Structures are given as C-alpha cells and as structure tokens.
Amino acid sequence: MTEETLWSLLQEVKDPEIPAISLVEMGMVNKAVVEDGIVRIEVLPTFVGCPALEIMKRNISEIVGAAEGVKEVHVQFVFEPAWTSDRISEVGREKLKTFGIAPPPDLLQIEESFEAACPFCGSSQTRLDNLFGPAACRSILYCESCKNPFEAMKPV
Amino acid sequence: MNTDQKALQELLFQLADDDFILAYRGSEWLGLAPHIEEDVAFSSMSQDTMGHAVMFYEMLEELGAGTADDLAQLRKPQDFRNAVLVERPNGTGHYMEQPNYDWAYAVARTYLYELFKWVRLEALMSSSYQPLVQISRKMMTELRYHLMHWQTWTKHLAGGGQESRDRLQAAIAQVCQDIEGLFSFGPHADAIVAAGLIADASTLKARWLEKASDALAKNGLALPDAFPAPSHDGRAGEHTEQLADVLNTLSEVYRLDPAAAW
Ligand SMILES: [Zn+2]
C-alpha cells in the first residue's frame, strides 16, 4: 500500500462525535507511514480526556487494517506537536458548519471569551450561553438574528 | 529505584491524585448544581480533570509503577499523594441522601485549586522530564476555559447581594485552611526540585498568591492574611477518613473483578 492510499483511507475515518468530518480534516493525523505492510499512525488528541479517543483508535485500526497488504496497524496518541483548533482544514471548517457547528475562531482573537458567527444564518449577532457544551470541545451559543441556539468548537 | 526515579514518581502521583480526587468531588455534583447548564459545564470540566489524571497515571504506568487502572482503583488511602483540600466533602450529607452541598465552597475550592494547577502546569513547561512539558502545554489550553468559567461564577456570587457575597468570602476562608497543603511536594521535595522536575514550592506559592489575589480583587474579595499549617500532609500519605470513603465508592465496581474488560 502506498502512503497516498493510506491517507485516502484515513479520510474515511470520521470523528465519532461529528460524523460529517474526518480525522484528517480535523487536523488530527500527524503522521501516517507504511513500511512492509506495517502501518504507523500518529494521532493528536483534541482534548486530553476526550472519551472518543479509544473509538477513533478502533475505527482507524478497522478501516486501515482491512486494506489489502496491511499486516499490522499501530495507532499512537502524541502531544508533540500539540493539536490546536487552527489545524482544522478549510474543508473541515465548512463541513462543521453544515453539521450546525460553528468552526472555532482564530486562536489569536480570544482574550477572556470568544465570538463565533451563526452556522445557520451567518450572523455575527451571537452571544455565548455556556462555555461548556455537550462535549468538552464545544460551547453553546445563541443567535440573536435567527433565534437559534448552536454549538461552536472552542478555540484551543 | 534511584533518587531521581523516586522523585519523578512521587511528583506524578501528586499530579494524578490531586486531579483524580477533585474530579470525583466535582462529579458528585451531577444533578445537584444550581441549574442544568451548570450541570453540563461542571460535568464537562470534571471529565477534563479526570482525563488529566488518567494521563498522569499512564505516565506512571510507562515507568513501571503498575497499570493506570490499578493505580487509580486499588491503592490504599495512605498511598495517595493528593493534598487534603481536594478530598474534603462537598458539604454534609451524601449525594444519594440529603446532599447539603455548599455551592460557594465548590466555586471557591475549584477556582483556587485550578489557579494553583495553572501555576503548577506553567512550571512544568520547563520540566527536565519531556513528557510533562508536552502534556502541560496541552492541559493549560483546556484549563483556561475552566478559569474563565470560575471567574464568571466568582463575579456572579460576589455581586449577588450580601448573603451570597458573605458566603463566598466564608468559603474562600474555609478553602484557605487547607491551601498550604497544595504547595508541599512532600518528603521527597528536595529530590524533586534537584532533579529539575519543577520549580520549588515557595516559587509556586508566590505565583499563586499573585494570581489568586488578582482574581479575587477584581470582585472585591480577598484571601486571608495567613494560611495555617495543614492538618494532614497529604503528600506524605496522611489523609482524613473522607478519602477512604471516596476510594471505597470509586473503586467498588472495579474491585468486584479487576480482570474484567471494559
Ligand atoms: Zn443565526
């Protein structure tokens, strides 16, 4: 298997909590190498205690492991470099929006709090309701224009 | 085990156990927080904190101290190295029965502890042990949101009328009865600092004092003038009865069958 094939397989591995987006688009795959059928993948956790990490590991092993010529798959979580929300690709940011989640604002723009445009109507007339949403990586905001609550990825 | 290895393990147990026990205390608030949004937020933060404890236990596992699960669930109270502050109950009663928990104490304890954790992680960024450098940077990005959250609560309670303000100030005083225990590195302090693992305790304390005083002063609150010596030195394995109670609850299921696959 070529590295190109490996990356396209990884594109099939979705974020368990946001199935619209792949781990590659999330910027979570740091390295993916293949040598004599032995695949080694380095994954950057978004949050240290993210409960979805083990599921991602299993999904990677299943999808990559099923490919022809793959003998072993080793998935390792690393913290060097650190994952930051700036690693999410442009395609990934667009997909988040279609899933109803505002992409994280630029890291440099946050001080005490942060702002995000509404993923539904695009309005920037929004307010932060709760820093902590249904997952550690998301906050809950409210759009004053279209009156919808929505989630936003935290800039980290 | 040589002195440096022993020092590293002792420090890792302090880091892991502080987060582990406080995350448990936080999780006991589930369903009892002032409103549903806070339930979500506090649970999410406790989950972060528990995740940080897991990372530290896994570092210990790599050093051959035992499996992370066993370290968390099977050690005896005297083997725990957390400061006594984090094991104090949330109030009288039990979460299953008449939980007379004190929200002001939860805000004061978690905020003052997490400010300390910030200072400690900041110091770990220059640690001689590389895995600690990498993980502390990552943890700080998460902790930052916790601090914003607790600052919001502090402001809210401090500005919420006389009773609310008095109760918060009283809770701060109560937390400070135990605060000195956080700044101790225990019996192996000299070896921990000599190995370059972290800055010394007085440096951490000075940095914490500055941060905590600022955070409170913004809301017209203050730290007490002096902090008493801790009643128990948690870093030396001295604990209250409350820790045994916590550990019994935490590991009840695990102890039934430690070999079970989860
Ligand atoms: Zn909108």
| Share of helical residues of chain B | 55-70%
Number of helices of chain A: 3
Low-pLDDT ranges of chain B: none
* CATH architecture grouping of chain B: Up-down Bundle
Q: CATH superfamily membership of the largest domain in chain A, which one?
A: Fe-S cluster assembly (FSCA)
Please compute the radius of gyration of chain A using only Cα atoms: 17 Å
How many distinct beta strands of chain B?
2
Supply the helix-strand structural class of chain B.
mainly alpha
Distance between the termini of chain B: 32 Å
Q: Hey, roughly how much beta strand do the residues of chain A contain?
A: 25-35%
Strand line-up across the major sheet of chain B: 1-2
Biggest contact:
A-B, 24 and 23 residues
Structural class by secondary-structure content of chain A: alpha/beta
How many structural domains does the protein architecture of chain A include? 2
Average residue pLDDT of chain A: 91
Uncertain parts of chain A: none
GO biological process, one term (chain B): phenylacetate catabolic process
Pfam family, one (chain B): PaaA_PaaC
Organism (chain B): Tumebacillus flagellatus
Protein name (chain B): Phenylacetate-CoA oxygenase
